[in-house]
Amino acid sequence: MAINYPTKKKPVHKEANKANLGMDLETMINDSNEYYLNNNIAVIHKKPTPVQIVKVDYPMRSKAVITEAYYKTPSTTDYNGIYKGKYIDFEAKENHNKTAFPLANIHPHQMEHLKNIIKHGGIGFLIISWNKFNEYYLVPFEVANRYWEAAYKNDERKSIPYEALQNECYLIKEGYLPRLNYLKVVDEVYFKNKEA
Question: Which pLDDT tens digit goes with each residue over 14-31?
Fold first, then answer.
């Protein structure tokens, strides 16, 4: 509903700020990781992206401004740490599509990295935020890899359909503390047989 002001100026409709679109999931995971650390549950951190600083300007002695920098090497995945004595490594991705998650959002070196984590006994997975439905899924590496190989080795569809996430992956419920309790799902998927 538009409101007409006495000045007869038309109301201004601001476009949604798209600068922070990819930050929602990251913020939720970071807040959850802080909760896990503060409550002695797990130690999981966001990996820093390796950057080579090329040029720095000093407009004032106390204010250095980086004006040119490049990624040194491709980053592996977003998060890693330890939980219940097991190494955990995962990538977090936002999805704005209604029907499928495009595999182009995952880089080949990230899949190779996760494959190596699994091979050496670690736990590797993806967390995908399905923004259209406000849902969050833990995608086991095995599921992501099956679609990845079908796409890039057999030239099949290059996405994971929404139905596959609903049927083959694990819904992570949003809460208060922690905001995104993904370790509860990790327990169900990776530790259920050990605790039985």
Answer: 333 343 344 489 999 999
